[in-house]
Each structure stands twice: as C-alpha cells, then as structure tokens.
C-alpha cells in the first residue's frame, strides 16, 4: 500500500516538474518573442527617424544650394548634372543643350549680360579615389557659353576646360555639375609659366592678351595655354583679384608674370642663349632637336655693313662622328626658326658657314636667332658669329687680269677655256687625256676623269652635288613636308607657303600691334580686297572714338572715315 502511494507521489511530482519546465520554456519563448518584436520596432523607428533626418538634411541642403544659387546667380537658379563630352574649340566657352536655353531664358538670364558657369566634377560611387586624389576629385573651373547645340543630357567642353577639369584621366562616364554664376570683372592676375622661354617672346604680354580674347573667365589654379606659332606655353594662375574666379570680358587686368620655379622648369622648352660677336658656344644636339642662340646687330655694325666694310659670318664647326647638323637663321619677331620657317639656311655636310651682307634685303638692325638642327645622329658642335672685314682687290691685280685677256688666245675644244695660241696644241693633248666636261645641260663644269664618278645631278632640280651630298639634298629639299595647317609641300615651296599663305603664319596685326596667327581669308569680301587677314578683319571690327569728331568708328574704317568726313589724307 505504502509502495503504491510512494509511486503515485513520485509520478505526481514528476508531472508537476514537467509542467513547470514547460511553463518556464513558454515564458522564455514569449519573453524572447517580445524582445525580438521590440528590437524590430526599435529598428523600424530608427530607420524611419534616419529617413526623416536625411529628408530634413536634404531639404536643408537643397534650400542652402538654392540660396547659394540665388546669391551666385543674382536671382537666376540654374543647376544641372550633365555628361561631359570633348569638342575641338578654342577658349573656355562650352556648349549646352537647347533645354538649358529655355530654362535660362525663362529666368531672364540673357538680360543680365554675359553668362558664366561654374563647372565641378561629380564624385561617382565606386571610384578608387584616395585621400591624395581629393583635390583632383574636387576640381572646379569656370567658363562662358558658346551656343546651345549640345545633345540633351551632355555638355560639350573645349580642350582648355577639359584639361583643367580632368588633369590626369577622365572617368568612363565623366559627370560635371554645371551651375549658373555671376562673376566680378577682374583687376589683377598673377601667372607663372611652367618652363623658361616664355619671357623671351617679343611683347609676350601682348601675346597673352591676344590669347585671353578667346576666354570669358579665369579661375585660380587653372592652367592657361598660350600658343605662339607652333610653340605652346602653359601658365598657371596663381592669384586673382578681386576673387578667386573672375571675368576677363571688357576689363583691364594688371598681369604679373613670375619666373618659373626651379622644380617646375621643363627641359624640353626652347631657350634662346645669347651669343656675342667673336665668341663661340659649344653644344650637343640630338637628331630631330633644335638648339637656339641669338645675336644682335646694332647701329654701328649696320653702318659698317651698309658701307660694305664688313660682313656677318655665322659658322658651325661640327665633329665628324657620323652625325650632321643644319643651320637656320631668322630675324625677330620669328624667334624660333625651323625647317619650315626661316630666312637663311645652310645644309652643307659637316661644318657650314652663312655669310650675311647688306645685299640681303631682310638684313637690318635688330635681334637674330640661330637654330642648330640635329639632322642625323647626335652631333657635337661649336657655333660662332663673327664680323669679318671684306677683302678688296687691288687695282693692279684687276689690271693684270684684264691685260692677260688681251693676249692672243684660242678656245680649247675640250674644256672651252681660252688658252694662249702658242700652247694650245700641248694643252688640248693633255686636257683630252685627263679632263672631261660634264654633259648635263647647263652645267659645263670641267672635271678630272677620276672625279666624274662622284659628280652627280639631282633628277628633280638639276643641281650638281658630290655623290656623298645627294642623300641629304634629297631628304632636305625634296622630301614632302607637312605644314601644321595640313598642306604637304617640298622645302622651297613650304618656306614660301609659311611666309605668305599659311593661315598659321605669324603676322603683326595693323590694328592691335600683336604678333598673331593670320588665319584664313577674311569672311567679308571688302576686307579681302583690302588685304586683311581673318584676325585683322575681326580685330578691325572693334570701335574707337574718332580723334576729330568723337564718333565711334570701326578701326578698319577709320582711314575711310577720316578721308570722307574730315577730308584728311
């Protein structure tokens, strides 16, 4: 009996323990479920709170950007993110889509004067930029607008703006933020060339002014490209006033050009080394490269040249080590002569000499440049300029020569020289055995028989040369040369083309006085009849007040105005 009661009690205790454990487990599950639900509610509330904060922050940022745009645009709000597309143009003016024209026009932007835009890079997700690249990723520059013909969703950017926005490499899809801004007129700019040589240009500030005429803006830290003929110079904008970005339209700017830093000097930039009369300079020139020197002819030296007392001798002594050079000379403002543009040249093999005398119509007082061109291999040379006295024949020598012609002479049937009749038989016997006359039409030079194999004529121009000089002659004078304007000509025609016809040739504008590229023919027929180049036609369209009546007259019509209105010649 007691045994059964004990088993029943044990069974009841076991069931009670199991019920308690199940109840405990149920309570644990309910507690965990409540905790999980609470965590989910907290996460949802946190996400909602974060979204609300982000929305508030975005709204504040948008309002701030709107305020900045209103302030920068002075009432005009224009902000677009467009894909950058390069196009070949000059200056800093971009092309925008037609929709931008409508948006700007609706806000009256065209009534506020010239339009300027701030261009900034848009940082894209997933880019592998580092902290060192932050400055490049935050590149900002400014521009004007050329026209509204770009494709929708894109902005066409000229090389100047492109190189300042993307100084290294552009991303696969370059996105640019374009914002309308108003800029103050500039009063001061400090520029620094990236290499030496820019200050050697004649009137380099006028050249810089001509280049800036194609620009509407300048931004601090931008790199400005200035072209002078085939040469290109890059100048960094160090400082601007009254702000870090300015307008350069219709304003006078004081410009300071500082010397390039030692660490930024370029070794590939052309430099004019001064060369004094009687002194020599040694150098080493590689094939295809130039070394430049300069010398000056003052009034005293020019007087001696005019009186035929002296002559100028430009000489190159080259070492015979398998290399060869060419010599080119020009008068400023052509400061860097080359194979295409020069006034005097020498292509002799080995050492070479140029004689400049008063008979040369291009010679006069002024500064001259010498170019030593590496024609073949690497050549060591010495270049010098001397003032040489002219050797004058004595009257007695000339009389002796003329009296000798009065002797009874007979023409040799072989060499065609006049020989005294008493020795003509002996001379002809010797001459026929040892000498031969070049049969080439117009040559007639008498050669020793052993020399005939080295005496050759060019098939194209007919000039006579030593056999060893023919290869260089063909390469220099008859190998087609390509002008930067696209024309392909031989050397002689190329020199003439770049002197009078090439649109890229440098001329002195009769209106602004700058050395500029001539350009193609003027668009206006009347300007073409007056002989104005493309640049002069545009530059002459600027107006200036007449000195007599004060009326604004185009510069190119000022002479006609003076004759027609004021009867002045």
From TrEMBL:
Cellular component GO terms held in the UniProt record: VCP-NPL4-UFD1 AAA ATPase complex
Superkingdom in the source lineage: Eukaryota
UniProt region (Disordered), positions on chain: 1-46
Domain TRAFD1/XAF1 zinc finger span(s) in chain numbering: 532-562
GO molecular function terms attached to this record: polyubiquitin modification-dependent protein binding
Keyword presence, Chaperone: no
Domain Ubiquitin fusion degradation protein UFD1 N-terminal subdomain: 90-182, 185-260
CDD domains in alphabetical order: BRcat_RBR
Transmembrane segments: none
Keywords recorded for this protein, A-Z: Ubl conjugation pathway
Keyword Mitochondrion: no
InterPro entries: TRAFD1-XIAF1_Znf, Ufd1-like, Ufd1-like_Nn, UFD1_N1, UFD1_N2, Znf_RING/FYVE/PHD
GO biological process: ERAD pathway; ubiquitin-dependent protein catabolic process
Compositionally biased region (Basic and acidic residues): 1-44
Family statement: Belongs to the UFD1 family.
This protein's name: Ubiquitin fusion degradation protein 1 homolog
Organism: Gossypium hirsutum (Upland cotton)
Gene name in the database record: LOC107955072
């Amino acid at each position: 009996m007691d045994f059964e009661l004990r088993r029943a009690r044990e069974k009841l205790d076991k069931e009670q323990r199991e019920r308690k454990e199940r109840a405990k487990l149920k309570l644990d599950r309910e507690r965990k479920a409540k905790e999980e639900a609470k965590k989910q509610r907290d996460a949802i509330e946190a996400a909602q709170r974060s979204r609300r904060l982000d929305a508030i922050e975005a709204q504040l940022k948008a309002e701030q950007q709107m305020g900045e745009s209103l302030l920068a645009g002075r009432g005009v709000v224009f902000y677009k993110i467009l894909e950058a597309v390069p196009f070949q143009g000059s200056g800093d003016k971009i092309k925008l889509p037609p929709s931008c024209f409508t948006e700007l026009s609706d806000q009256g932007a065209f009534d506020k004067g010239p339009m300027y835009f701030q261009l900034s890079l848009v940082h894209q997700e997933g880019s592998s930029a580092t902290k060192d690249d932050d400055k490049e990723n935050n590149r900002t520059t400014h521009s004007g607008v050329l026209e509204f013909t770009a494709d929708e969703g894109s902005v066409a950017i000229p090389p100047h703006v492109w190189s300042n926005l993307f100084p290294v490499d552009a991303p696969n899809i370059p996105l640019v933020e374009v914002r309308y801004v108003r800029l103050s007129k500039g009063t001061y700019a400090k520029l620094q060339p990236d290499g030496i040589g820019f200050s050697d240009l004649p009137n380099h500030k006028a050249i810089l002014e001509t280049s800036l005429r194609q620009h509407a803006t300048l931004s601090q830290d931008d790199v400005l490209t200035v072209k002078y003929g085939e040469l290109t110079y890059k100048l960094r904008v160090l400082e601007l006033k009254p702000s870090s970005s300015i307008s350069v339209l219709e304003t006078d700017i004081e410009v300071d050009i500082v010397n390039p830093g030692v660490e930024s000097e370029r070794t590939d930039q052309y430099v004019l080394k001064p060369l004094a009369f009687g002194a020599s300079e040694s150098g080493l020139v590689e094939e295809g490269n130039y070394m430049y020197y300069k010398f000056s002819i003052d009034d005293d030296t020019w007087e001696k040249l005019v009186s035929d007392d002296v002559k100028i001798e430009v000489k190159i002594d080259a070492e015979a080590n398998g290399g060869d050079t060419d010599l080119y000379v020009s008068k400023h403002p052509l400061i860097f002569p080359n194979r295409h543009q020069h006034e005097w040249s020498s292509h002799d093999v080995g050492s070479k000499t140029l004689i400049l005398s008063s008979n040369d119509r291009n010679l006069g007082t002024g500064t001259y440049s010498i170019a030593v061109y590496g024609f073949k291999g690497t050549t060591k040379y010495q270049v010098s300029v001397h003032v040489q006295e002219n050797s004058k024949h004595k009257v007695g020598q000339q009389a002796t020569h003329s009296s000798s012609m009065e002797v009874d002479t007979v023409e040799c049937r072989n060499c065609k020289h006049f020989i005294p009749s008493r020795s003509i038989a002996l001379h002809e016997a010797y001459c026929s055995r040892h000498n031969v006359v070049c049969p080439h039409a117009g040559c007639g030079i008498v050669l020793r028989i052993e020399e005939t194999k080295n005496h050759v004529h060019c098939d194209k121009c007919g000039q006579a040369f030593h056999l060893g000089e023919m290869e260089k002659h063909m390469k220099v004078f008859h190998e087609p040369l390509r002008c930067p304007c696209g024309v392909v000509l031989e050397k002689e025609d190329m020199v003439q083309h770049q002197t009078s016809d090439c649109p890229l040739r440098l001329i002195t504008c009769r209106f602004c006085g700058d050395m500029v590229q001539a350009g193609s023919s003027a668009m206006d027929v009347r300007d073409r009849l007056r002989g104005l180049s493309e640049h002069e036609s545009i530059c002459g369209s600027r107006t200036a007040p007449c000195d007599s009546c004060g009326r604004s007259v185009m510069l190119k019509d000022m002479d006609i105005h003076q004759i027609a209105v004021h009867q002045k010649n």
